[in-house]
Amino acid sequence: MQTEMTSVKRSQFRLRGPQKINDSRITPIRGDLADIKLAGEFFAPHYAKAKMACCTAPSSIITNAAHDRALSQLLYGEYFAILDIAGGYAWGYSVHDNYVGYVAVDDLRIGDYRADHQINSRNALIFSHASIKSMVVKQLPMGARLSAENYDDIFMRTSDGFIHKRHISPMGKTSGDSIDLARELIGTPYLWGGRSGDALDCSGLVQMIFGLQGINIPRDSDMQQDIGQEIAHDAALQRGDIIFFPGHVGLMSDAVHIIHANAHWMQVKEEPLTDVIARMDEGGILARRRL
To answer: Any idea which fold 4-110 has?
Structure first.
């Protein structure tokens, strides 16, 4: 693929003083290239107009430039804005949260894809026919997005086959609240950068759970720390409150228990908040927020 690159004349810029990138995680610029939308704000030798692509793998890890560290994860049906392709990887950003990184080209398809439903169970099976006895053609994790239409009282039809209605819901709509969804993920393996029903990290869990309810929030825990309203220091915690620690985040399932994806247990766990605080090497609770 040849990306559309544009050289912008220096006379067009009105930059004064050193350029400062507030957060490189969500600013699509590197030494040789930047998104055309940044022209006039940041100088780069070349600019590219993003091409929209859809993730066609159940999930795909977003990596750093060396492809040796996971940054985040793209799920089936989510958009990725491609700015460059080289060495089998596309560089750009995930459209839902602007997170910048590299995705394997083989996991993407350039073009439009109109997802109108989402997987709301930990995992869902796509069957070849409208029968649970038919062959499984694909398995998708919680958070994946797809286009589906009503088929009968039990199944929805997708481009790949048939999915049971208990495993799917319209985009942004689920039958349970954040804790109902989080509890479905108890026991799911911990994965740095993960944000699906197959494996996830702490902020990936929180982002995906709220995304299923139609609430888009940033990717990492420090970015999420400003969402919602601050809870007064003397107010009791309640179901659904978001608790922030240094480099960590979780959801209160009631006044005293928290659900979180963590590297201590290497899975999603529900446990007393006091136990989590006791394990912290440094610092305690940084913030308590409520949506």
So the answer is: SH3 type barrels. (2.30.30)
